[in-house]
Amino acid sequence: MKIGLDARLTYYTHGGISNYIRHLAPTLPALDPANEYVIFHSRKARESLPVPANARRADCRTPAHHRFERFALGVELLPHRLDLLHSPDFIPPHGPFRSVITIHDLTFLRYPQFLTAESRRYYNDQIHAAVQRADAILADSDATRVDVLELLRVPADKVATVYLAPDDRFRPLPAEAVDAVATRHNIPILYLLFVGTFEPRKNVAGLLTAYARLPGDVPPLVLVGNKGWLFDETMSRIRELGLAGRVHFIQDVPADDLPALYCGAGALVLPSHYEGFGLPVLEAFACGAPVVIADRASLPEIAGGAAALCDPDDPASIAHAIQTVLTDSAYRQTLIAKGRARVKEFSWEKCARETLAVYRSVISNQ
After folding, report:
1. What pLDDT score was predicted for residue 146?
2. 266 shares its domain with 337
3. Do residues 28 and 92 both lie within one domain?
4. Distance (Å, rounded) from C-alpha 107 to C-alpha 242?
5. Average pLDDT per run of 10 along the chain, which is 366 residues long?
6. What is the maximal distance between C-alpha atoms in the chain?
7. Are 150 and 197 members of one domain?
8. Which has the closest alpha carbon to 195: 244, 262, 254, 246?
9. What is the pLDDT, as a whole number, of residue 281?
10. Which DSSP symbol is given to 136?
11. Could you tell me which of 309, 344, 341, 301 has the C-alpha nearest to residue 325?
């Protein structure tokens, strides 16, 4: 059997979906040596993902998220005579092969106000054709699976939940390594941490409002990520709340610095309105940081009772959860211990094995 994995997105972005692809590309072929794998890259990508002997690279001219992607990529794939193609960014091309897609979240349907008009048009134009074309759909969480079933009217037996996992580099680090990273980024030794894109869905505005309600002696707030839609409004909120000296932004953080930033945090705070999975929760657990999350979408599911919950629509609730984690030492240590136990339930090998099971089910039903 010849299986294709669409890895073109790794050339264009380095976020969550690219990270997902980077783990699947070597792990799937290694667990499935009887079959041949073709890893499709952008022809512009100099990097080749490391893969075992039963996998090879193929280059594609069609860019990710091109308006004619489904047709153009389908033509490019024809000579490869695939039995199955996995589209990790949910947009499958046309072609004479079985199709598995991954839907990471349905923000554009559940909370359309959190996207730009252009993004809404693009995803809305693609999603219905995508789920019709797909022979099987992977969802990052049960919460996302429910969204797929409810919002897209997909048969239940077509959608499987397969959890993601944190990278192995996320682990407790020596104090000197943590302090060195804090010094390099010019932040204090102790702080509250947010990790994610600075955009409305992540509820940075709500976090800032909640932070302004906390006593003046709480640790500074460090926001790690990249600018998203309406970033200027976030900066305006900081000025309005008088937080300019207490909030630090760190953009384009090197991947190797992120574990130390989790290790040095008094707490990770993720009060998002909507997450399809919420990988920073598990990354923080693995590093031994306590976590505050919104009581919405996939976050409570992924945390599994190991995080403090808050109402993302209520700044007082967010502030209370943060203050409790910072001041109640027994509760704090309980969360840390539960987090370390919870994260052990997730691994990329498990993700790949469950993904392979879906591939085999699709092929056997051919």
Report:
1. 97
2. yes
3. yes
4. 31
5. 96 86 97 97 93 97 90 96 96 96 93 79 86 97 97 96 96 97 95 92 93 95 83 80 90 93 98 96 98 98 98 98 98 98 98 98 88
6. 64
7. no
8. 262
9. 98
10. E
11. 309
Please name which of 61, 43, 51 lies closest in space to residue 22, comparing C-alpha atoms. Answer: 51
Nearest to 349 by CA among 25, 28, 15: 28
Strands 98-103 and 136-139, by their bridges, are: parallel
With beta carbons less than 8 A apart as the criterion, state whether 3 and 37 touch. yes
What does the alpha-carbon distance between residue 258 and residue 244 come to, in Å, rounded to a whole number?
23
What gap in Å lies between CA 60 and CA 199, rounded to an integer?
Answer: 31
3-state class (DSSP) for residue 223 = strand
Residue 34 Cα to chain centre, angstroms: 30
Look up the CATH number of the domain holding residue 187: 3.40.50.2000
* In a domain? residue 321: yes
Distant-in-sequence, close-in-space partners of 276: CB < 8 Å, separation ≥ 6 = 103, 104, 105, 106, 107, 139, 140, 141, 143, 144, 297, 298
> pTM here?
0.94
Is there a single domain that holds both residue 229 and residue 116?
no
